[in-house]
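W.,

You were right to be curious about this one. When I first looked at the sequence I had no strong expectations either way, so I just let the prediction run and decided to look at it fresh. Below is the sequence, 351 residues in total, followed by the output.
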Amino acid sequence: MPLNTYDVVVIGAGIMGSCAAYHCQKRGLKTLLLEQFSLGHNKGSSHGKSRIIRYAHTEGVYLPIVRDSYAQIEELEAKRNEKLWKNCGLLYMTNAKDAKIIAAHLSAHKCENTIIPGKEDEFVKLGGKIIEKEKVLSYRDTGSRGVTISTLKNVYKSKKVIFAAGTWLQQLAPELVPSIRAQPEAICVAYWKPKREEDLHYFTENEMPVAIMDNVETGEFVYGLPNVDYPNAIKFGFHGGDGYNIGDDISSPNQELIERPRRHLQLHLKMIDASAPVKLDRCKYTMSHDDHYVIDRLPESKNIFFTGCCSGTGFKVAPAIGKALACWVKNEKAPFDLSFFSLKRFEKSKL
């Protein structure tokens, strides 16, 4: 096989792309992982020290995917002899109707009513190759002859390609935008301190559960995590952001994205100093029309698959989605049903 020829090229080394590349290489496929920035950059959706991983969803299709991700995290912990997640429990506050739906799904899957580092390391240990700071300029699917990928520095040949480019999906595959939306949103992640230092112990990972508050009447959806990202401060933010175009300056957040969690803290968590956050981080979501993932084969292509529009909840299921994509590129059946996330749902909505 020539030097720049691969079985699979994965474009995007965020959590989704890293997991997909790992599983492709694990299955014996010569795999290249391309990233336009440095590994671990803060320009996308995969940076930060903590994430929520949860079974609780109103759509039951998510639960087998989450279960597989949990199993992979445990497997990776054992392999690396390293603790990668903390089970601190989840307090999910929502309306009675959604609460019953979530409880039913959890019971059906026998579930009692965070960051995942390491996939890139394990990918390289398996013989995979990562190239940083190499932006993809164009690609051409030639059918039986595979895909040609042109970057700023090289030209690569690959039998299969996976797009896992996050907010850059709309640039890689602009033909998808009319049907799936793929709208980037700039998120404001806020961190808050207790009013009294002696109350800090209530907000440690051993005392405070992950919390989700979903008020369907007001549209307020806020979330909180214990003080694991920054010393003496909890993560508490609004699930949502402002739409933007790639290249826009998003360094100054919309103040309403700070005001919404601030109001909630002021009303419901009075031990927290809600006068102002002590730290602000920026993150990005990529949204579909219905706020669910889009995972499919690129239209009119035999060899290109993509995952995107993870809408702020994709980090926790990346190990499982990566495994499924690796199955697809080997023409194998995925270990769980992903039809819910296909492009076909948007075709039906036009009828």
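Here's what jumped out at me. Residues 62-80 form the longest helix (19 residues). And, maybe more interesting for your project: Residues 109-118 have pLDDT under 50 and may be disordered.

Coffee later to discuss?

I.
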